Amino acid sequence: MIMTMTAKKLLIFDFDGTLIDSVPDLAEATNTMLTRLNKTPYPVDMIRNWVGNGSRMLVKRALVGAVEVAEGQLTSTEVDHAESVFFDAYAQISGQNTVAYPHVDSGLKQLKQAGFTLALVTNKPIQFVPKILQSFGWQSLFEQVLGGDSLPVKKPDPAPLLHVCETLDISPEQAVMIGDSKNDILAGQNANMDTLGLSYGYNYGQDIRSLNPTEAFDDFQSLVDWLIKHGA
Question: What number does CATH give the domain 10-19+101-231?
Fold first, then answer.
């Protein structure tokens, strides 16, 4: 696929699985939650497949031990309590096991210097985002940051992406959604903007290219190089 001819000004990034690998810390918080609820903890590699749809879905998947959670399988009260325990556990974690993927730090700065406006739209609860951004020194790179609970809906709904465009006064045609999962690609497609996929993140074992992003990459530097060459 070919990027639309409209010049790109705005790059909207996903967070977990795109810029950072937060699974070790998320897994620790998940297993702490399960232990406190007298349930069996799970291996990190299994929990990795449950990440990407926000904290509430992660909690639900952990409670049932599977990616698919049937309607009525859990009560709202049960999930509310477990999510509260999860939030408490995650807030206590230092974040030292959350790392940036290779070339992300230099790549973001390279894109900023090239004149792009950067924004962050994640399904992670917003309360946990600033601390992580600050730990990497990225807080000044993004013109806007939205969490999964910043609006009534989250990705794959296009509303967060369109909200960013409206707030920054940049049209969807001038924006690109960049992420590692189907939620990112679908959100971008639903917002009628170009999408760029990264294959190394959390996409439940599905090849990101099967979702037909405008283009896909296996490492962040390749994405940066391509954007600077084609995107502006």
Answer: 3.40.50.1000
